[in-house]
Amino acid sequence: MPTPEVGSVSGRKAVRFPVVDPATGETFDEAPDQQPGELDDVVARAQRAWHGWRADPAARTAALRGAADAVETAGDDLARLLTREQGKPLAESYAEVARTAARLRYFADLAPRTRRIDDGRPVHSEVRWRPVGPVAAIVPWNFPLQLAAAKFAPALAAGNTVVLKPSPFTPLATRMLGSVLATALPEDVLTVVTGREPLGARLASHPGIRHVTFTGSVPTGRAVAGAAAASLARVTLELGGNDAAVLLDDVDVDRIADRLFWAAFRNCGQVCMAVKRVYVPARLHAEVVEALVQRAKTVAVGPGLDSGTRLGPVNNARQLARVEQLTEQALADGGRAAWGGHRLDGPGYFFAPTILTDVPPGSPVVTEEQFGPVLPVLPYRSLDEAVDAANSTGFGLGGSVWGTDLDRAEAVADRLECGTAWINHHAELSLAQPFAGVKDSGVGVAGGPWGLYGNLRPFVVHRPQEV
pTM of the predicted model, to two decimals? Predict the structure, then answer.
């Protein structure tokens, strides 16, 4: 499917940048490297399109439903291109495309509710809702389509227009998605721009943008918030996670081992709300490590387009180097690799699925976000010690508790300092639920009606009951 150039400068050949296949480490295509100066025209067109888009809720609903249908129709092309540039197994790319369509369909049927205020005065007061204006959506490389839809679907449903910027590591599937959506949406309602920095910084600080929604690292999130503050734009930030899984002493290790492994290693561990550290009662530590090692030994690692692959490569060379550095530091700190702990031989950005033990609690692989196929398993002596350790970092995206006594597990989950806590599973979200972090893991709320209202502002009308 051809992907049209968006925002190119008339009379000048567009500058392009390489896109690398992480399974080979080689360039396989290029994308437009749009310059910050081009954003003025893009945002101006989004502003003009906003006036018509916000005026007709019924037309928006129909357009978003049509957009969902178009995404499903293009699913094969989108999934294959997504795997090529991101690296994930093809089955996971198909699931991401399906989630993208489902999110469009969910928000197409969601509308804000007018509320009457009855405070005893002889005045009829109503709270109505209005869209905020053009929205900047800045998306990372781990789930480029799904996270894009998590931003643009509620923004569009609320009556805003969107300028969408994907990561320069994964621009192509998003550009294709933009072309697919253009068959169902009015012109300039959603525009995809691609490029390297400082394009994202300029978009976040653009005076015509009224809401900046960003997913990425904590340092970049702080920079985005600072840039948006220049124009007093609203910000929604989903930032890093270092989710802890706390296993209780009554846990059935055999029963939960598969779920626990994939909660940590899905998408090669490149999930904000993946399990990134496991706390285990000391007497069960060896059993849990062995169960996880058996799965790490046998999981099929390879290119995402190969039919048997369950675990693909790390997405890019910079992230691979970080995963390697954190692992080497953990080993230098006294940790031991029960399995893995190294890059895999051959082309591409592959790192062996790694289970670490004996890691000191202050090692960076425990206190920071590794965002790769590496999992430290740490023993604890008392439950209070485990909860304190789980809450000890600056992150607070998600967490989970695993055990047989569900009431006890829920009581422990209630002590975790995070936005979402799961019991006996992890990182599973409904389209209808809110998603938000605490501490350094984010600002604002995504998902469900909360995500819709995050793209609206209240408008109050007072009318006397008598002339």
Answer: 0.95
